[in-house]
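Q: What does the assembly look like in three dimensions?
Context provided by user:
Components: two
Sequences:
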Amino acid sequence: MSHVFDEAITVSVGDDGVFHATTHPAYSNMVGPFGGITAATIVHAIQQHPDVLGEPLAFTVNYAAPIADGDWELHARIVRTNRTNQHWIFHIEQNDSTVSTGSAVFGLHRPTWGSTEPQPPTAPAVETVEPVEFPEFIAWAGNYDKRFVVGGLDGSASEDSTSTLWIRDRPERALDYPALMSITDSFYPRVFLRHGTYMAAGTISLTTYFHATPDELAAQGVDHLLATARAARFGNGHFDQDGQIWSGDGPDAVLLATTHQLVYFKDPQ
Amino acid sequence: MSHVFDEAITVSVGDDGVFHATTHPAYSNMVGPFGGITAATIVHAIQQHPDVLGEPLAFTVNYAAPIADGDWELHARIVRTNRTNQHWIFHIEQNDSTVSTGSAVFGLHRPTWGSTEPQPPTAPAVETVEPVEFPEFIAWAGNYDKRFVVGGLDGSASEDSTSTLWIRDRPERALDYPALMSITDSFYPRVFLRHGTYMAAGTISLTTYFHATPDELAAQGVDHLLATARAARFGNGHFDQDGQIWSGDGPDAVLLATTHQLVYFKDPQ
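A: Here is the predicted structure of the complete assembly.
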């Protein structure tokens, strides 16, 4: 039996090289599909390309308009292939309209000096933290086991927009680049936490940097990830938020991805 | 007399809507032009477009290949205009080859609730910090007055990749969006600081979020900005670094922009 995530990111390729995808009801959001599943589908599609070089390193997607339920087309092409990296641009078409644009850099992992400067957040053991459910109108969240260490949305406003949570696909699924991509967009808008309520808000532009090597993904397997996010500045209808995805807590934890987004919001009426 | 920055970001528009620009020797870098001046030129060009909506909010540029000294073409187009924001994509062509790609979101600043969570770094007064000069092969840096509070490149390795500096254009120039764009790419690669030496390194992908309103830019005028940057993870040939550009220090400082980039590097031989 296939995993619902694999069903959702499925693409087929036409003779013209255009990828065809379809929204999956299990990953719907308040308006249109969850952005993370759209981004994961793009990463997955590029990985299928016969000329792809290496693994994803940097990925930016701009959500210009909501995707409607149904079929959509991904137009992706290689702009330039260098010795160790490859530049892609893409856009999503639906009903003769461009609804998303973006770019991706894929490339090779070469052995070099390494160092990670930030520390993972401290967190109690996964099994001691209760999973929480989001309301039904956030369908996609049902496909994640989410255990908030801080910053769960419990209805109270917070002076600090930080959320830290243990997260993995539900049912369990071994981590790969599409799954990691999706999880980097799984933080709910930080403005909800500051106000303690759902509000009109949506990601405009998302950038993820993949630090994980294929070996690090394999070592992660189905274990919970430790994810943390925080906003910088809110104001004038927008805010940005930054996130980190760690393999776990403690001194040996690996920083698998960093992620940034600009979000649109409206004041609650 | 025109400012060298304005000379460098000058564009002309052809009948076909293509923008024409030329590299400026005052902003050359080790290989090709300083990425910040390229990005600033793109922001400036989009601002000239008769159909532009509002001001820059999010900007991503991918440096796929070095730009050679001389003329280059910017192909920029509006993908979608929403009620309060507008999505652009662009690429740079030179000698029939695509050397950069990217996307920009412009939009309106609407009055909403606001809050800034991070604090600016602490810093001594501008006039008590000595400006430093970079070597001549980093020509562009000569157009900035740079006063490092921490993390100046003095030849010693550091365990912490943080640099904090007072910076402004030299000669003085009132801050605008192109100037702010350029300054978000003015942090030298963090790997230099960790190793205490210049190394082969170059930005692959840069994303800047503009928080500054036109009024905040006007209030800044020619005053020094307080800029800070730090890396997250180095390894396997790449690292990412994050930066913040503040209007100054202290409790009333305004966070004008946040910025992120993925950088390629080679170990020193």
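Follow-up: Residues 25 and 139 of chain B are 8 Å apart (CA to CA).
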